[in-house]
Write a structure and sequence with these properties.
Elements (H helix, E strand, L loop, with lengths): L2 E5 L12 H7 L3 E3 L19 H14 L5 E6 L2 H11 L4 E7 L16 H14 L4 E2 L10 H8 L5 E2 L1 H4 L13 E6 L9 H9 L3 E6 L5 H4 L1 H13 L8
């Protein structure tokens, strides 16, 4: 049995992993999905002060209060920023770190550093004009997302405090990361921001690399495929991309 903890993506929260709960439970695993401050059922706590460190502390709080150990920590999308910080500060609790189509920052980088200059400016402009100066409206979901899932998710995806994208992650260079895997979603959108991290995982030592035939949210659009892949990862199977 594996204990999975999810650092979820931007604009999202625990609800987005609803399809994965019964699948992982039936397979004998635990799944914990902390919701970040200011999103989902914790939307009432949103404020301009919420930043990346707030979300890192949200996840570490669950690890501590639930006394979770030997955790397989999944960082999805923006959650890669959060998971990186969590794994650095709670290294003794993390047995594996899985980046699911996620940002992988180096020490001193923020999410906006990992975007192109045009994207950075567009995000900041949206926060100024459509988010009271401090919140960023949700991005559209992938075009292949079934209409029923779009309808289900749309009312639940909430604006993201922009400081979570602007604050740099600070890492202890003396703490080695846990074993890391990168999962690249092959059905890319208009931009391919995550390819840079997929290529790094294939190039650098200390990584295992996987691909999944889905768009950016396989926990919503391809849950059975994701279950199979997560079980392969925790079992220690290796996989290289195929043509």
């Amino acid at each position: 049995m594996a204990t999975f903890v999810v650092a979820h993506g931007a604009w999202s929260s625990a609800w987005a992993w609803k399809k994965m709960r019964p699948l992982l439970r039936a397979a004998g695993h635990e799944l914990w999905t902390p919701t970040y401050t200011g999103l989902g059922d914790r939307a009432h706590l949103a404020s301009p002060a919420v930043d990346l460190d707030t979300h890192i502390r949200d996840v570490i709080g669950v690890l501590d209060m639930e006394d979770l150990h030997d955790v397989v920590l999944i960082g999805h999308s923006y959650g890669g920023m959060v998971a990186t910080g969590v794994a650095d500060r709670a290294r003794d609790r993390i047995v594996q770190l899985v980046y699911l189509d996620a940002f992988v920052p180096r020490n001193g980088q923020c999410l906006l550093d990992l975007q192109g200059a045009d994207v950075r400016e567009r995000m900041r402009e949206l926060a100024r004009t459509s988010g009271d100066g401090w919140r960023l409206p949700p991005n559209p979901m992938p075009v292949d997302t079934p209409a029923a899932d779009v309808a289900w998710a749309s009312g639940r995806r909430l604006p993201q405090p922009i400081k979570t994208f602007e604050q740099a992650v600070r890492l202890d260079d003396n703490v080695p990361p846990p074993p890391r895997s990168y999962v690249y979603c092959r059905r890319i959108g208009p931009t391919d921001v995550f390819r840079q991290f997929a290529e790094r995982a294939q190039r650098d030592s200390g990584w295992r690399y996987f691909e999944i035939d889905s768009s950016h949210n396989p926990h919503i659009t391809a849950p059975h495929q994701l279950l199979e892949l997560l079980e392969k990862i925790v079992a220690g199977s290796s996989h290289r991309p195929t043509e």
